Amino acid sequence: MNTPPPHAGRTKADSGFRLVPFAVTFAVMMTTWVALSGKLDIFHLSLGVISCVIVSLFSSDLLITATTFKGMPGLWLRFFLYLPWLIKEIVLANLHLLKLVFHPRLLDEINPKLIQFRSRMNDDMGLVTFANSITLTPGTITVSLSVFGDYVVHAIDDASAEPLPGEMEKRVATVFGEDHD
């Protein structure tokens, strides 16, 4: 009987130390350390270097999951083009909730529900981005996401539930190079 290796899909070469993900993770963390601490003396900088090296050794494969950087600039460009649309949706959802909260018949207007659906996306980062986008939009919270793309989302009313998965899923799929027309 053939049993898959503990990390199916990863080869032994992938499980070792990789310099580029380590360096990128270290640079991001060290920049964050300096920006948040504001301390530039040798003591604090050395603590930052030691801490960032240790954390980068253990977690560089979490921040940089791609084995190649081919296509990354395009992905980041598409992501930054997605952000204005997401911000617009967040503002509109905030206005909707503001109207809902101050409605004289609030208890008649809200209709909390759990919505279940399966996304057609295959990219893990796309699935997580979609889940986070749903949660960032007021009136909806992603309660559960499976590795197969099964979502459970709580919506406060019918108007918040109606557009799911819809346009947001299509836009996130476009960011991650998947076609959902």
Q: Could you explain the architecture of this structure?
A:
The chain is mainly α. It folds into two domains: 12-63, no CATH class; 72-176, no CATH class. It is 56% helix and 10% strand. It has seven helices and three strands. It has helices at 19-37, 42-63, 72-101, 106-109, 124-136, 158-161, 166-175, and strands at 113-118, 140-145, 150-155. A three-stranded antiparallel beta sheet has the order 1-3-2. The two termini are 41 Å apart. The chain crosses the membrane at residues 19-36, 42-64, 76-98. It is a multi-pass membrane protein. InterPro entries: Cation_antiport_E. Keywords: Cell membrane, Membrane, Transmembrane, Transmembrane helix. Its main location: membrane.
Number of strands: 3
Low-pLDDT segments, ≥5 res: 1-13
Biggest pleated-sheet summary: 3 strands, antiparallel
Order of helices and strands: HHHHEHEEHH
Strand order of the largest sheet: 1-3-2
- The total domain count is 2
First-residue to last-residue Cα separation: 41 Å
Shape descriptor reads: globular
Strand content: 5-15%
Class by SSE composition:
mainly alpha
Helical stretch tally: 7
Q: What radius of gyration results from the CA coordinates?
A: 21 Å
Mean pLDDT: 85
Query: In which range does the helix fraction lie?
Result: 55-70%
Pfam family, one: MNHE
Family: Belongs to the CPA3 antiporters (TC 2.A.63) subunit E family.
Membrane topology: Multi-pass membrane protein
Subcellular location: Cell membrane
